[in-house]
Amino acid sequence: MQVAIVTGAGSGIGLGTAKMLYDAGMAIVGIGRDLAKLTTLEATIGDPDRLATLSVDVTAEDAPHRIVGLAIERFGRLDFLINNAGAGSPKPLHETDDAMLDGFLDVMLRAPFRLCREAIGHMGDGCGIVNVTSTYAVIGGRRGGAYSAAKGGLTSLTEHMACEYGPRGIRSNCVAPGVTMTDMVRHRFDDEMFKRVNVETTPFPRLGEVSDIASTIAFLCSPGAGFINGQTIVVDGGWTTTKYMSDRALRTNWVEPS
Q1: Is 154:213 a contact under the CB 8 Å cutoff?
Q2: pLDDT digits (tens, 9 = 90+) for 44-75
Q3: pTM of the predicted model, to two decimals?
Q4: Could you give the count of Cα atoms lying within 13 Å of 69 in the half-sphere of its Cβ?
């Protein structure tokens, strides 16, 4: 039985991914800070024989050792690592202070780096790492700031690992979601500008759902992706690769800001 670690597993993309990998027959090590959310994961899977959870801040100094140690202790092996834990609501560079910069880099670059470093020694042929990045690691975006820097760094780290550890049969890839309807994002659609930037420029009749991202991650952890290494799969309905504007947006009169 294969074993997968999923960080940020208590909600959103992490929860959906953990459930999908479990349904594929894997044992899951679910990581999160919020005990209540991990309880949701436990209830969703409902199988303590194939689920271990750990409440820990992924930025803690001992987090990698505790996380990987739990996988080995409970299940005796580690096949896949999904670095999904993240943070949102960034600000543009000129509004980003050092504390915000450090916070984003710690959660979304330093923590995955350290967890990959801890996990790689327990992995071999047929294993894989999937790092969840962002469309903001693929193209420039307003308000990206430290978030873009962290996700871009994670992409480069993934490409390095694909080269360094590919000869051992360990695949490393990224999944870059566009705007996905999770609890962390849903409230932002109260902002009309946020809605326009994402809805009116996506050439698909809906935005991303958790299942869209989770199924892509699950694919990268499947035999069907056995020759995919060092890639970023963007899941955004075409937002990054087109200059689409909806008919509504095209008919809208330009209004000078007041």
Answers
A1: no
A2: 999 999 999 999 999 999 999 999 999 999 99
A3: 0.93
A4: 7
